[in-house]
Amino acid sequence: MSIVELRRYTLRPGARETLIELFEREFVTGQEAVGIAVGGRFRDLDDPDRFVWLRAFPDMASRRRSLEAFYTGSVWREHRAAANATMIDSDDVLLLSGPGFTPAPGTREVVATVCHPTDAAAFDPYAARHLGPEHALHRTEHAENDYPLLPVRTGEDVRVWFGPPQSPPPPWPTRRLRLEPVTAAARRAG
Q: Is the pTM here over 0.85, yes or no?
């Protein structure tokens, strides 16, 4: 299991493709160079001003070191103004423990389910019946955020998984995000 950030950005109207192009051209390799595993990157199909993505770290200490290296490094310094100009909010972040997730090539749509089980003990039987390894189940990581320059949501106990649109809904409060994977074509073109 890894430490995974599920990040949902609210962008200025019409700025999503600008951020995606910059992200794919500069930020994927820039983060990978400091030990961050960049996972799926997505357009939110129900909100044209949302960009959703994941990144993973082996553990919390690695997370802190990698984030410090990236956010004090040349790639971020050079491109942060352009990236920040596209964003209204970048603080909708869940800190999770799980396998991370990158969609298979050719995947057109993924559903990310963010579930707030009111009965954590009942969740495991639900997961055993309805979720397989392909769903990449994640759970809240309750470790303290040791890189406070990047806030994460706290005080929540969630389960997050990824799967095809027809996954059965759970019986607890749930938000389903319909996501379109960002292809690597933009990254190769840059």
A: yes
